[in-house]
TrEMBL record, chain A:
It holds the Pfam family Trm112p. Belongs to the TRM112 family. Coiled coil: none annotated. This is Multifunctional methyltransferase subunit TRM112-like protein.
UniProtKB/TrEMBL annotation, chain B:
It holds the Pfam family UPF0020. It comes from the Eukaryota. GO terms for cellular component: cytoplasm; tRNA methyltransferase complex. PROSITE patterns: THUMP, UPF0020. It is found in: Cytoplasm. The keyword Cell membrane does not apply. GO terms for molecular function: RNA binding; tRNA (guanine) methyltransferase activity. The gene is Thumpd3. This is THUM3 protein. Keywords: Cytoplasm, Methyltransferase, RNA-binding, Transferase, tRNA processing. CDD domains: THUMP_AdoMetMT. The keyword Cell wall biogenesis/degradation does not apply. InterPro entries: RlmKL-like_Mtase, RlmKL-like_Mtase_CS, SAM-dependent_MTases_sf, THUMP_dom. Residues 225-235 have a biased composition (Low complexity).
Length: 65, 518
């Protein structure tokens, strides 16, 4: 979640490979936006992994492993 | 050449300059002829990657290469005007122009006689054309130092940037990187960082212990040299032997073989003496214009003139770590896996990021992911990438052209990547000497191979792994035979250690997905 009104649907819709508009938005989010400070959240466990200076830290702690 | 002139092939610029300076058609024609002069170039490359380098030469220069028996060297012929492209080769450490090659030189058994032969050889060698090439190369270098920064073209196109000393030739490549990608490099200006960790060293041989030394002439200079270091090359003038241009020089001799009656030091000294006599140049060990190379490998001998000073191998790295890999080796490893456009390439133990950075520069149509568990390494890798981005900044727009590369801090045994989602894994595995330990490798290597096997796409995935701990690697590999097959091994030399690069292919067998925590 980038804190903006959602430009992307929650799931890829069928036939997305041909949807130029969607592909542009996807490309933008994937390759043109860089999170410098923030976090990534695991969709299953809800565990947050911090991002600092553009680098996410995905190391698990001792008890999580 | 003129500063305001649009960049052009070297020969054309020289011819034009000569014409403009009112030197008349003869000089202009000489300039154009210089451009077409056939230069035999020798290149030193990481041992083991001679064929890779030859492929790159074929691909980028259209020339076939000869691979020398003296390991780590290849030879090819190009017109002098191709020098800028030669400097942009990414598999090459150092370059020189060949004066003459001797395939089977009979060194006399007696030391005095052998050395006398070398002295006598000097005046018989065909110096003229190679010196012209050297001068041309010099004028290219001068242009490079004048311009500290290169402009990118507008964000819509990618300019080819000069690496080790060419002109900033603008090449309008296709702007749509997603599709038609010609895989042209965004070459990075030489970082200028000195190699303090791994000595470039002499190419050492695996197995055979041969007497080898690498020393330089100890002929000392006495008189002040008035150096006209070939900056007038642009006007088509050449440094003919006997002309009153006093250059400073030194001789570097590399000698390998157990049947020679002399040392490299002696050869350099006597050869150097004859060079001084012949050209009336001044010898100077540190501040030289011309570096004459005398490479002797058993009965093969090559006399050359150096075209590079600093080795190009550390070009991308500004922040070194304790075991930073040289970029030429990184390039060789990447080429081995034959990256295709849209491939996802991961280095899960990236250290300072040498491999992914080289990858992103040369294969911009792939997506590169760098990861390491060590916070220092991650920081250095991120800094190296920032340096790269800063160099790529366009003067016009404030936005830096992005680089298809990301850094993550992670654990190699628990990679946060989906099963079968990665095309290529390339990495420099801990040797157990400077980082980690041999004992740790016994556990690390199998776990590593399993996890790398999981993330790679069955059937098409491949891995290129560099390691010095060959025994441990072989054992680990034998345990994962169901997912990895060894396709090729390249024996290399890394900082004096005998290491191996293994190319592995992922079998079609799907990985077991036993991941409760991701």
């Amino acid at each position: 979640k980038l804190g903006r009104p959602s430009e992307l649907p929650p799931e890829p819709t069928p036939g997305y490979e041909a949807d130029e508009e969607f592909l542009r938005r996807l490309h933008h989010v994937l390759l043109e936006v860089e999170v410098l400070e923030g976090s990534l959240q695991c969709p299953d466990s809800g565990r947050r992994f911090p991002i600092s200076r553009g680098v996410p830290n995905l190391l698990l702690s001792e008890d999580e492993a | 050449g003129g500063g305001g002139r649009p960049p052009r092939a070297a020969g054309m610029a020289e011819a034009e300059a000569a014409g403009d300076a009112g030197l008349g058609p003869a000089a202009a024609q000489e300039g154009a002829q210089l451009a077409e002069l056939a230069a035999v170039i020798g290149a030193t490359v990481p041992t083991g990657f001679e064929h890779t380098a030859a492929e790159e030469v074929r691909e980028k220069l259209g020339s076939a290469s000869r691979i020398s028996k003296d390991r780590g060297k290849i030879y090819f012929e190009v017109p002098a005007r191709s020098l800028p492209q030669v400097h942009r080769l990414r598999s090459v450490d150092n370059l020189f122009v060949v004066v003459q090659e001797f395939k089977d030189y009979q060194f006399k058994e007696n030391k005095e006689d052998a050395l006398k032969d070398l002295e006598d050889l000097v005046k018989k060698l065909p110096w003229t054309d190679p010196l012209k090439v050297w001068e041309l190369n010099n004028s290219l270098k001068k242009k490079k130092t004048k311009r500290k920064k290169y402009n990118l073209q507008s964000p819509a196109s990618r300019g080819k940037l000069s690496d080790g000393g060419g002109e900033g030739e603008a090449d309008q490549n296709n702007t749509n990187e997603q599709e038609d990608c010609a895989q042209n490099p965004v070459a990075v200006e030489a970082a200028g960082g000195r190699d303090t960790e791994n000595p470039q060293g002499v190419a050492s041989r695996n197995g055979v212990e041969e007497e080898e030394d690498n020393e330089q002439s100890d002929v000392k200079a006495e008189v002040q040299a008035s150096s006209e270091s070939g900056s007038k090359a642009g006007e088509g003038q050449t440094g003919e032997e006997g002309e009153a241009k006093v250059l400073r020089f030194r001789v570097t001799c590399n000698r390998a073989g157990d049947k020679h009656s002399f040392t490299s030091n002696e050869a350099a000294r006597d050869f150097g003496g004859a060079v001084q006599e012949h050209f009336q140049w001044k010898a100077d060990m540190t501040n030289f214009d011309v570096e004459v190379l005398l490479n002797i490998h058993n009965n093969e001998m090559v006399v050359g003139i150096a075209l590079t000073e600093e080795s190009l191998h550390r070009r991308n790295i500004t922040h070194f770590g304790p075991t930073t890999l040289r970029s030429t080796l990184a390039y060789g490893m990447l080429r081995l896996c034959d990256p295709q456009p849209t491939d996802i390439i991961v280095d899960p133990m990236c250290g300072t990021g040498a491999i992914p950075i080289e990858g992103a520069a040369e294969w911009p149509c792939c997506y590169h992911i760098a990861g390491d568990n060590n916070p220092q390494a991650v920081k250095r890798a991120a800094n190296n990438i920032s340096s790269l981005l800063r160099k790529n900044e366009s003067k016009d727009s404030s936005a830096a052209l992005g680089v298809p590369l990301d850094v993550i801090q992670w654990d190699i045994c628990r990679l946060p990547l989906r099963t079968g989602s990665v095309d290529i894994v390339v990495t420099d595995m801990p040797f157990g000497k400077r980082i980690g330990s041999k004992k740790k490798n016994w556990d690390l290597y199998p776990a590593c191979l399993m996890e790398i096997g999981r993330i790679c796409t069955p059937g098409t995935g491949r891995a290129v792994l560099l390691t010095q701990d060959k025994k441990c690697f072989a054992k680990a590999l034998s345990r994962v035979g169901h997912i990895w097959r060894r396709a090729q091994t390249v024996w290399v030399n890394v900082g004096g250690l005998h290491a191996a690069v293994y190319l592995l292919r992922r079998t079609s067998e799907p990985a077991q997905d036993t991941r409760p925590f991701w």
